[in-house]
Amino acid sequence: MNYATRVQRVEPSATLAVSNLAKELEAAGEDVVDLSVGEPDFDTPDHIKAAATEAMEAGETGYAPSNGIPELREAIAEKLQGDGMEYEADNVIVSPGAKQALFETFQTLVDEGDEVVLLDPAWVSYEAQAKIAGADLTRIDLRPHDFQLEPALDELADVVSDDTELLLVNSPNNPTGAVYSREAMNGVRDLAVDHDVTVIADEIYQHINYGPEHVSLSALEDMYERTVTINGFSKAYAMTGWRLGYLAAPEELIDQAGKVQSHSVSSAVNFVQHAGVTALEERGEETAEMVEAFENRRDLLLDLFDEHDVDVSHPEGAFYMMVPVDDDDKAWATNALEDAKVATVPGSAFGTPGYVRISYAASADRLEEGVERLVEADYL
């Protein structure tokens, strides 16, 4: 068979590859401390599960409108308006996961050879989805700036031009946990306006935040018409397996992206969307309790690494930490999994070699066990 160039441009997801290898070891009877997965270790709140059950019992099991049920689009628009954005229900596409919303955005906006700018470290699927769409990538390395964007604005200004099609900004950030300042976001706004660049604002970790101000790009002056806001339910509501996300953008883009959704996944699951309405309208204390637990685990890891003289950046959001390792981070991660039975993700998967990403969406006991194993096996 002859395989399409767009598929051969990309590699399989590194995070899923590590997770699959960890599961193979576990299936063989090994006790693996899996710190590779970006999934809250909390169950979906009961009132959200009950809403899905009620929707199924009410017969909401057929096809849903392609762009989403009206009740959920309205609830999402109300949520975004509460964050200072101007979106209405007609500005929203509900998708089966935020990853699908990103994919549809790339497919809608990027032609062969268009420039897409990424801020490294960048989540693994950004590169893959951009390449599938035919993009040429330009990358800005935030490692010298402790993973923050504000000190790198001059470097960003050197590469963003009238030829740039898309700039992608993810705050709070996966994989670093960095939360970009208002000054950084204002700098992005200035560049986007000056060069008429569209910006994807991935806000999936918006509510996993340990104190810094969260700034939504679309809420800034002159950004509504050039921002695609991506968000979803997987992280803040522990709904990873439900596959429910959304994009919000000007209506012209919604019209075009809606074609991609209607001819691919059709829609998000009907009764899951009804559960999403409940998640937004009846938000309880569960998210705050999760965030508190994640913050405590972050502090635990910071203390443990400090004890072993490992210099790590201080995450302000999400539930990840970048840990400096050998230059060959892929070999380090593979060997650490085989020797110490601790699963991490190589930093090179995020465009940042010399690091591994640790997820602290795991219990405190398992985090301590993981660090102890890495120390005993001389990986730290």
From TrEMBL:
Cited CDD domains: AAT_like (cd00609)
Cofactors: pyridoxal 5'-phosphate
Identify the domain of life: Archaea
Top EC class for this record? transferase
- Choose any GO biological process term that the UniProt entry carries and state it: amino acid metabolic process
- According to its UniProt record, the EC number is 2.6.1.-
- Extract the SUPFAM superfamilies matched here: PLP-dependent transferases
Domain spans labelled Aminotransferase class I/classII large: 31-374
Q: Which GO terms describe its molecular function?
A: pyridoxal phosphate binding; transaminase activity
| KW Transferase (keyword) present | yes
Tell me the first and last residues of the signal peptide.
none
PROSITE patterns on file: AA_TRANSFER_CLASS_1
Q: How does it assemble?
A: Homodimer.
Report the family membership: Belongs to the class-I pyridoxal-phosphate-dependent aminotransferase family.
Official protein name in the record: Aminotransferase
Q: Which organism is it from?
A: Halanaeroarchaeum sulfurireducens
